[in-house]
Amino acid sequence: MEITTTDLGLAARVQNLTKTFGAGESGVRALDTVTVGIRRGEFTAIMGPSGSGKSTLMHIMAGLDAPTSGRAWIGDTEITGLSDLELTILRRRRVGFVFQAFNLVPTLDALGNIMLPFDLDGRRPSALEKARIDGLIESLGLSARLRHRPHQLSGGQQQRVAIARALATAPDLVFADEPTGNLDSRSSREVLALLAAASREHGQSIAMVTHDPVAAAYADRVVFLGDGRIVADKPKQTAEQVSAHMLAAEVAA
Ligand SMILES: Nc1ncnc2c1ncn2[C@@H]1O[C@H](COP(=O)(O)OP(=O)(O)O)[C@@H](O)[C@H]1O
Ligand SMILES: [Mg+2]
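A: This is the predicted complex of the input protein with magnesium ion.
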């Protein structure tokens, strides 16, 4: 196995990533030569105003979309150039997702949704994985909700099911895109605290896209995106610091 110094300690990284949508006059450059690494075991927030390229960056990092130019890795596997099938398998085995709209399967109950990554991969969880999933269900407060279908759950409960599903396989990296965007402030705080705990207590690597300074303040590190470029990369910030930074960026723009 080849180990290079560049990828040690990184759950994912991208190099000179550029993404344009459309062409000519109407073309949009969503990402402009972005280079960044997501460190293992850390909870990283990717912060920026609406339209700054956050979702585009996440989609390319996760192999859901291809860049116009540049390269992307998950761990030490380069994902740019993989086939759709290879990407699907890699995502299934090594990446977890939490979306703003929860994206649960409506016909499956909570437990069915949590177990979906194993079913899709055609395998049963090991005894160790079963024990971890039981612990997750307990700590996410879902024990009494396992037979409920998504429409029978509140938004906060649905998002906790999505988090359990994302963490169930202990993936190399969990991507969360505006995970609190559809939640009230109390459920938002719960969801953010659960993500922070997964990282702090279990070393789960998490990259969370958000435009909310309060959400970014739960992370260990905040990467600021503006107009498709990385404009700052800071260790743990308070919500006030994040807000001040965003305001200053707006004034400068
Ligand atoms: N599929 C697409 N087709 C055309 N333009 C897009 C597409 N996806 C994103 N964009 C544009 O790229 C820019 C960045 O979008 P996005 O990554 O969604 O930003 P954010 O998540 O920070 O709000 C925006 O100008 C957006 O309109
Ligand atoms: Mg977005």
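The CA atoms of residues 70 and 95 lie 21 Å apart. Helices lie at 54-61, 84-94, 110-120, 127-139, 155-167, 185-202, 213-216, 239-252.
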